[in-house]
Amino acid sequence: MDNSPTSLFEGYDEEFKQILSSLKGKLQGDVRSLAGEQRKSLLRTIEAELDEAQEIIQQMEVELHPMPASIRAPYSARITSSKTDLAKMKKTLKDLQKETQRTDLLGSAASGRRARGAGDPSLQDEPYTDDAGGYHDDSHRARLLAGTDTLADGSRRLDNAQRIALETEDVGADILRNLHGQRSQLEHTRDTLGVADGNIDRASGTLKKMIWQ
Questions:
Q1: Helices 69-119 and 138-212, packing angle to 10 deg
Q2: How many angstroms separate the CA atoms of 129 and 81, rounded?
Q3: d(Cα 181, Cα 187) in Å, to the nearest integer?
Q4: Are 9 and 63 contacting, i.e. CB atoms less than 8 angstroms apart?
Q5: How far is 17 from 26, CA to CA, in rounded Å?
Q6: Which helix (H) or strand (E) covers residue 52, if one does?
Q7: Cα separation of 88 and 45, whole Å?
Q8: DSSP conformation class of 33
Q9: How far is residue 182 CA from its own chain's centroid?
Q10: What is the Cα–Cα distance from 142 to 136, expressed in whole angstroms?
Q11: Largest CA distance in the chain
Q12: What single DSSP character describes residue 132?
């Protein structure tokens, strides 16, 4: 059995390609045909497979280091390409997870309206119908989605504000340290000048005595 770095690299690369192919099929087809808990379960499976693919890339990087420099470049390029493909898969997964969360929120809102409508006949006449036989309100859906986006935007703004505040605090601390250092230098210079003035006065007095003698 060939255990050279290049042979092991090829083995890991082939395994990565197989997982990547499986992930593409699930993300582009399987997930979109499911709903509810089945969809969530498949998303968790995909997340685990993405973690496995990440570990395979790390193993490929381990096998890259002992390779001779003369042949390392194409293998390094394949790792870069694999990382790019994996990053795209992770982004697709995150988008699907957000979509699933929004669907859950809308489903909960629709259930609440149906429950209220059961106790109030006037609410049962509201136009909540869709192709699946459920109930929904387009305006309420739009408001809910807008509220979700606003909340996410607010969170991003808060994070940016906290980051800027911390950076400003660091800059202020650096300025205070610099000013303290400059003050110490000025005080030292002042003391040095005072000593020099004293020496000059004593020298001047000595010269005067020597002149008058």
A1: 130
A2: 46
A3: 10
A4: yes
A5: 14
A6: helix 36-64
A7: 17
A8: G
A9: 39
A10: 11
A11: 124
A12: T
Phi/psi region, residue 35 (left: phi>0; alpha: psi -120 to 50; beta: rest), is beta
Q: How far is CA 198 from CA 108, 195, 201, 202, 211, in A?
A: 87, 5, 5, 6, 20
Q: Are 59 and 47 in contact (CB under 8 A)?
A: no
Tell me the per-residue pLDDT of 99-122, one tens digit each, with 9 for 90 and over: 989 888 886 666 656 666 555 555
**Highest mean pLDDT: which range of 108-122, 135-149, 161-175, 189-203:** 189-203
Q: What is the pTM of this model?
A: 0.51
DSSP state of 32: G
Tokens coding 17: 């390609």
pLDDT tens track for 47-97: 999 999 999 999 999 999 999 999 999 999 999 999 999 999 999 999 999
Q: How many CA atoms lie within 13 A of 42 on its CB side?
A: 20
Residue 74: the pLDDT is 96
Residue-range domain boundaries for the chain: 5-126, 137-213
SS3 180: helix
Q: What is 180-195 written as a DSSP string?
A: HHHHHHHHHHHHHHHH
Q: How far, CA to CA in Å, does 184 sit from each of 26, 181, 195?
A: 67, 5, 17
Q: Kindly state the DSSP code that residue 67 receives in the 8-state scheme.
A: S
Q: Domain 5-126: give its CATH superfamily.
A: t-snare proteins (1.20.58.400)
Q: What string of DSSP letters covers 13-25?
A: HHHHHHHHHHHHH
Q: Which of 4, 1, 3, 20 is nearest to 78 (CA)?
A: 20
Q: Which residue carries 């909960």 as its tokens?
A: 108
